[in-house]
Amino acid sequence: MDFKVALAQIKPKLGCTADNLALIEEKVSAAVKEKADMIVFPELALTGYFLKDLVPDVALSLDSPEIARLTALSGDIAIAIGFVEATSDYRFFNSAIFLDKGEIVHVHRKVYLPTYGLFDEQRYMAQGDRFRAFDTRFGRFGMVICEDLWHLSAPYILAMDRASTIICLSSSPGRGLSDDERLGSTIAWQRLTSTTATFLNARIIYCNRVGYEDGINFWGGSEAIAPCGRSIARAKLMEEDLVFATLSEGELRRERILSPLMRDENLHLTIRELQHIEDKRLIS
């Protein structure tokens, strides 16, 4: 089915969950007024990104009042949003949750936690251990969080699990300038999302944040990508924005007929060859 998605490119306040929840409610209301079927927020939209020692203070269990409030809001519109998840054994995950019709449909815990350069996630967060596609009223989806998408195996696994739409929640800082003075991280992400969509015959919904934390700037540029790699809608750079895109079932069908890469993908060969590589590594 065709569906309309809203990309809520917001500027969350670091550690201020109540303020961020109010902002999120405002964006949900605006998207509902525009008759969007789904709204996507950035990575850690409820808390801000550079949390460090604040992680235990802002972490939420799935039965918390804040998650219950978001779940109730999903009665009118499906919601994908990032937060710090607390588990009963006192682990904390950089998580994304998909809510619809007043229910928790899926939770993804970020697998690849960047701990290099200006990133220090693995010092404060636990690693997720799976990529799983899930069914929605819009088709079969997958979710990844920022760095996850830079590991080829992650979207590939989701595509092999029959996901035709992949949501990527992001908090990507602005880094580097190209020769023509474009932001290097912007160029890299636009290339990544377009290429991933093309190779997997899948739609990519990418939502990045904006604003400053600890002197670090987040560049925005959220976008929806068609399965041919074409950008359907793109948000502003460096500014808060709420953009809408209609994702067409006909375009997905047409691309998978014209370029049947997923039909011809040999999953058994991939498993066999990866097992061969793993066996060789164990021997050596």
Describe the protein's architecture and organization.
- The structure is a single chain.
- The protein is of the alpha/beta class and 284 residues long.
- It has one domain: Carbon-nitrogen hydrolase (Nitrilase/N-carbamoyl-D-aminoacid amidohydrolase).
- It is built from eight helices and 14 strands.
- The strands form three sheets. A six-stranded mixed sheet has the order 5-4-3-2-1-14. It has a six-stranded mixed sheet with strand order 6-7-8-9-12-13, covered by helices on one side.
- It is globular and about 50 Å long.
- The N and C termini lie far apart (50 Å).
- The relative contact order is 0.14.
- The mean pLDDT is 96.
Task: Report the principal-axis shape.
Answer: globular
Spans where pLDDT lies below 50 across 5 or more residues = none
Distance between the termini: 50 Å
The CATH class is identified as: Alpha Beta
Taking the sheet with the most strands, its summary is: 6 strands, mixed
Tell me how many strands there are: 14
Strand content: 25-35%
What would the average pLDDT be, to the nearest integer? 96
Output the radius of gyration.
Answer: 18 Å
Which class do the helix and strand fractions yield?
alpha/beta
The run of helices and strands is EHEHHEEEEEHEHEEEEEEHHH
Strand order of the largest sheet: 5-4-3-2-1-14
The number of helical segments is 8
